[in-house]
Predict the structure.
Amino acid sequence: MKNRDREQYKHFLRICAVAVILILECLIFAVFWNRYYSERLWIEPFWNKGNKVIVVVYGVFLLAFMYIYGGMKIGYMKGSSIIYSQAIAAFCTNVLMYFQIMLLWRHVPYILPMICMTLIDFTVSAVISFLCDRLFARLFPPRRLLLIYDEYQMDSLAWKMNQRQEKYTVQMKVHASVGEEELYRQIDQNGQEGVILGDLHSELRNRLLKYCYTRSIRVYMTPKLSDIMVRKAEALHIFDTPLLLARNSGLSLDQRFCKRVLDLAVSFVMLILASPVMLITAFCIKLYDGGPVLFRQKRLTINGKEFEIFKFRSMIVNAEKDGVARLATKHDSRITPVGKVIRALRIDELPQLLNIIKGDMSIVGPRPERPEIAKEYEKSIPEFAYRLKVKAGLTGYAQIYGKYNTTAYDKLKLDLMYIESYSILEDLKLILLTVKILFMKESTEGLEEGQTISLSEQEDEKEDQNV
């Protein structure tokens, strides 16, 4: 099967799988709606077409949440991630519909049928997603990829891609020094299913990209910072010569205003809803060792401005008494038993809602770094300061799509992707996606023991070669 036909067939099967899950969950809702909820409505028209309309509304909500949480990426994400995404989508849809039924009933409706329906949804989506994952694995074997690298061997990237054995196999690595003619020959011979262009020089990368383009060969690239900066550049059609406009000025005045309104609205609501959890957490921290409940520390926000961040204390008192700034490791002895729980559930971050209300932070933005650690990063990556074109955030692009121990260079790329493609809708999507990562262990994974600062994949490879 040719690559193009394979992708079209795969896309068609993905649409069919999503449609089956959507239709089945809508039918399940229709049964529970007609059995437990529709008959108690005081609105007479619901006996006619209204019942069908409410099922359609349910389907629209479900489809939207499936899109936001990645539940539609069957055959693309890991099977466990698809099941998890489908479960969150069903849960959020059912909660939203429960409140809608509450408005229609004008009093609190039965919750037990909704709980039963949610459990059935979980089971149905999990079974279908699992079967589809197995089907995709059988029909579409992993792509055999050719990795072309130059100064850095990109071992870390190759390892990550090989972890998805059902999708990728880095079959061969070629150094750019072999010459372009040999690279073209290797692409024709070993790269027909895909080529990975590592951190190559721009001229060579552009020629290889064009070569693959003419032959319809799939290309995976590690983006350069300049690629990200022009990713959402505005197309100008003033002249007959195409122009791209990269404004490079951060957020506009209207964007900053809308973002501030969203920050205040969301933070006040979250503060009210989270207040019982925050009180219990404060009590547990105080009860454990009698130390202070809150931990204050200097961090950086927009334009390099320093502010004092608030967090629930998760480590022992005077955890950095030697004065050395270091990130938490996987089995850090400084973390208290209470701290392990609140860090795993992200509860330690809740006091930052006060920073958001004060205006030091935003709900969505780059992670606020410590001045000492940011200074160390900037020694090797001067562009790391580009992240400070917007306010630091409680959650953000790098926090959601990266990990706690993601390299500083990759964090910079992720944060720039957010800044250069900013929109209120993107903020709302990232806020909703934050719910998804709350219980994902890998997103809070610490650094390896002895590693104090995570810089870049290239730095890690240099260290590995020197050992």
